[in-house]
Specification:
Elements (H helix, E strand, L loop, with lengths): L5 H11 L13 H8 L6 E5 L5 H8 L3 E6 L2 H13 L5 E5 L11 E7 L10 H11 E12 L11 E3 L5 E3 L3 H8 L3 E11 L5 E10 L6 H4 L3
Parallel strand pairs: 1-2, 1-4, 2-3, 4-5
Antiparallel strand pairs: 5-9, 6-7, 8-9
The structure holds S-adenosylmethionine (SAM).
Length: 221
């Protein structure tokens, strides 16, 4: 089994039209503001699975150098339009799959707001390798994802959300052990997701270890 296919997400974004998605809240989430406060200013930041780029553009308006990637071309098309309307020249968007994406220059901070739980557990190693390759030594990685403690997760680790997305609820231990080879855990706590903030979620902030070789080097011939 693979993670949710891209055509599913394209269909979701097309069906939303100009209305908000259930995960889009008007204000920049407090967790993202917390992560950015821990990074240098201005920071070079990548927003993984940026969707229509509302958080990416908000951080670009605060002078950070932003890259947003998402594999949905519908979502990235909207994100580019919004950035152009706002006259932002310090943000770029790319249609790309997180499981394969690599960049020439490393980032001070990578953020994942509400994406990891859409990655199939069998693909989590590829996801982790991308994050490790993108974040510079001593850089940061912040993530908010649904929690296995959310009441809707009861009865099994997976559920199908209102828009037909499969959600794979990770335990905190699963996330920490996935990243522990490349990152040290700086903060973990509970938060809420959804427009009504009614879903229990994990929030993590990791710091990239300085004592490990980069993933790309380790995987080299
Ligand atoms: C719940 S939405 C969150 C979007 C955005 N982070 C936000 O807060 O608005 C999940 C996003 O992850 C994207 N996504 C899921 N799997 C992906 C993958 N393998 N590569 C790139 N994007 C992915 C989807 O297209 C979707 O835009």
């Amino acid at each position: 089994m693979n993670s949710e296919p891209v055509h599913h997400w394209d269909r979701v974004y097309r069906s939303l039209g100009s209305g908000p998605a259930p995960w889009e809240i008007p204000e920049t989430p407090a967790e993202i503001l917390r992560w950015i406060a821990c990074a240098p200013a201005p920071a070079r930041v990548i927003d993984l699975g940026c969707g229509r780029g509302h958080n990416t553009c908000a951080l670009a308006m605060s002078e950070h150098d932003m890259v947003g990637i998402d594999f949905s071309s519908s979502a990235i098309g909207v994100a580019r339009q919004v950035a152009a309307q706002l006259g932002l020249d310090n943000v770029s968007f790319e249609v790309a799959d997180i499981l394969r994406f690599r960049a020439r220059q490393a980032f001070d901070l990578a953020i994942d707001y509400s994406v990891f739980h859409h990655i199939h557990p069998g693909d989590r190693g590829k996801y982790r390798d991308t994050v490790a390759a993108l974040v510079r030594p001593d850089g940061l990685f912040g993530m908010v994802c649904y929690s296995d403690q959310d009441p809707s997760a009861q009865g099994g680790p997976d559920r199908v959300g209102s828009l037909g997305n499969t959600i794979h609820h990770p335990t905190a231990d699963e996330v920490v052990s996935l990243f522990s080879g490349d990152f040290s855990l700086k903060e973990h706590g509970e938060t809420r997701l959804g427009q009504r903030r009614h879903h229990l979620a994990h929030r993590f902030l990791f710091r990239r270890r300085t004592d490990v070789l980069s993933v790309d080097v380790r995987q080299g011939p």
